[in-house]
Amino acid sequence: MKNWNIPQDELLYSGHAACQGCGGALAMRLALKAIGENAVATIPACCWTIISGDVLYHALKIPVFHTAFETAAISATGLKAGLTMRGFKDTTVFAWAGDGGTFDIGIQAISGAAERNEDIIYFVYDNEAYMNTGIQRSSATPWGAWTTTTPVKHPEDKPKKNIDEILAAHKIPYLATVNVAYPEDFIRKVKKAKEIKGFRFIHIFAPCPPGWKMPSDISIQVARLATQTGVFPLYEVENGKNYTINYLPPKKLPVIEYLKLQGRFKHLNESQVEYIQQMVDENLETLLKKHELTHGTLENIPRPEFYK
Amino acid sequence: MSIKKVLTGNHAISYGAMVSRVQVISAYPITPQTQVVELLSEMVADGILDAIFVNVESEHSAMSACVSASAAGARAFTATSAQGLALMHEMLHWAAGARLPIVLAEINRAMAPPWSIWTDQNDSLSQRDTGWMQIYVESNQEAFDSVILAYKVAEQVYLPCMVVLDAFVLSHTSEPVEIYDQEKVDEFLPPYKPMVAIEPGKTFGYGALAAPDTYMEFRYKMQKAMEKAITLFEKEGKLFGEMFGRTYGLVEEYMMDDADYVIVTVGATTSTARVAIQELRKQGEKVGLLKLRVIRPFPFDKVREVLKGRKKVAVLDRNISFGHHGIFYQEIKSALYPLKERPQVYGYIAGLGGRDITVKDFIDIYHDMKNREDMVEIIWKGVKL
After folding, report:
1. Of the residues A18, A258, B291, B358, which has the fewest C-beta atoms closer than 10 A?
2. What's the complex ipTM?
3. Mean pLDDT for all residues in chain A
């Protein structure tokens, strides 16, 4: 982590239509830096349908096929097949979808493509709700959060769906969680994914200032706290069984540090925060056990100086 | 040299796709379509056909895979029936709106509930307004030929095309089919070279958001493409005839020269109607047949030209638009309305859910139409109450 090695090339132009502080826009910028120009993307209904620009404009330096909400994975499959038949065999084909299109409506096609081990990368930029239509809950919305369909009087009462475990159960060659606040880790994993054949799944933690009711200039701070509190751990799963935690904060911060910066959690009382803390601890504990099962020890999990 | 094979309608379609050199096939099994893609999957696995076969988890995904494979510049094919076609509905709009010349074989099957696996036309006609061209065929040879013709027209107007055939009546019934020499098919149908295709290095957004100031023009151009397809179906159908000996148009006429009375049919019932017309002609009745082959784009001019000056027309619908009439009855009436002098038109609904339509039924329909003076607009044929 001593030397920065993020490519300088920009494949996402300025002038795109994202909100200020958008984790999703930064995520695409980083992903493209890692993938490079020999790539083709498909984007279903999500914030990125708008961000990339309307029919007269295009904010990306790669071609994009816009597709229907539930079809990101199969659309990428079809693109890969079509390009292969036309001789473009080494082009990286990826799907780029939000959490609604992934955790909910798109899951059938994702499961199908994962089971068939299609040679595509599937990215989900997870901002934990349907943001493009005005912040409605998705099955990625965490317990206790406010959205317009889980209002303060009746906040979200189900824990976030564990999409990573669902995908890991398909025994796909590669799965990774990444966070826009950790660009080095992000780039490394996308580069690694690019070199692997078969179905690859990258789960991106991507804050949404309007949806999370927070100022746009603390987007990265909040994203970093998600990992430092254990809410969003950074790890990889290879072939559905080998787990590697990539980073643990030297001192795990309490979840309240993460929750208190966001308006979507401000109605929570002490015992509710305690309940969230308990869930986060349990999830992390399970993950640590899986890491230990794979590596025989917990000692080698990086705790870089940089993040202290 | 061409060869003759005894093929079911389903396998005639598979061979049609094979000689069209489809490159990406994506499909999901559904009765009575399944045999179409079973044979294709075998052809791909055996290396007889150079294509990628994607065994998807639903018809929605089957059409989605075809859509993006076609957007990437490959010739894409799928086949389905009834509930499967309904599940594809959203992506049928996507294929047409993205202007992708995909060909889909649709085996006409009644919609559930109640469950039915037998033929009727409500499944494909529910997709009439998606922007897909639709060809309805009468025989297995016509099914085979129509796949090739469908690609030929679709790839010139950038609109997808459905080839529709009757469940079991054609799909599972064997007939001799002439399979043309591959080189000759290649000459008629060269490889697909799209004007625009997704590929690395070409930077653009395909199917991006269109605001009110741009959306309408996309739709206008689709309609213009449909209008162009009318001429192309005639032109390519004629060329097809010169090359392979079988000429196709938008409609087909049978014993129409001096006919005062006309029966209009779509699909496999046409063959039955032909026999009825032969019988009636022997009895001195002046009756003829109009078969609609291409129903989207709708051949308005052709229909007017053929039906102008006739006394009465009976339209057979193996379908119904609930709360309105039989769908082809509506279409024929709307085509004739601008004429100053119009024949009287009657709509007969028969054969729903695969119920048999016999020669005697057509003879009854003929006499019923001829003797009828009232204005009744839906005449149910053979309902047991």
Report:
1. B358
2. 0.96
3. 95
